[in-house]
Amino acid sequence: MAVDAKRGFYRTPPGWGKRKHKIMKRRVFFVSDRTGITAETLGESLLTQFPGANFRRIHIPFVDNLAAAEVAAARIREAHEQDEVPPLVFSTLTDNAIQHVISASTHNVFDLFGTFIGPLENALGEASTHSVGRMHGIVDVTLYERRLNALNFTLSHDDGLKASDFDEADVIILGVSRCGKTPTCLYLSMHYDLKAANYPLTDDDFDHLGIPKVLLPAKSKLYGLTIVPEQLSRIRRERRAHGRYSTLQQCRAEVQAAEAMFRKEGIRYLDTTTISIEEIAATIVRDMDLHRRDT
Hints:
Elements: E1 2-4, E2 9-11, H1 16-19, E3 25-32, H2 37-47, E4 54-60, H3 66-83, E5 88-92, H4 96-103, E6 108-111, H5 114-124, H6 141-156, E7 171-176, H7 181-192, E8 196-201, H8 203-206, E9 222-226, H9 229-239, H10 248-265, E10 269-271, H11 277-287
């Protein structure tokens, strides 16, 4: 659908109805002068709006000189010739000359930096530095050290390790085995600079009336994760196909006991069954009123 500027309502673009039932197959390039994380993140966010399309993703990082740009452009042109349809190109290149080479390689180049840098310069009354890799480079040594410290803390306090140090944590994730505790903690440390520990709940913990004693001093920092038992059983079977650990009966019992504990102790918790790690982390930060350490 598109906006009709004169009539102020949406109208269907010509031919859209005929094309919408076809499965689109397109190659997508993520081109960057550094790691390509920003290009991929922004580009993927846009691609999620087209669930009917079939995308083949190609990453081309470290395009930081004209020679590398020419090689990347050649790959893009080759893809266009092979597919007989122009690929999609998401770029976060800061050098105008390099961006020009990529833009000339095909029709559908989305300059994710160039689109906004100009308006930002006008809004701020200041020229951009056009510096390469400032988002993911070591711009502030202090902040970088904080992130490393948070990551080291998280790695050394995974799966209930060093529980006596949990009072140093910013947040402690509780949940049964394989509900997403470790990846969530790693994401919190890497993207929010938070010291995130996690503690696995087992049958031994459910034998008691409340939370494990070792967690009592840090109760205000606890946050629970839960999951649908059927999904938990499938995940566990991939790790350990046989035995009681992965049976649906065992998974149901553990999830019910964990959720009962969360409710009894007033611990906030989140069902991770259909939520991405990014969403889980953002929800925890919001619910626990945590903030990035660099703000």
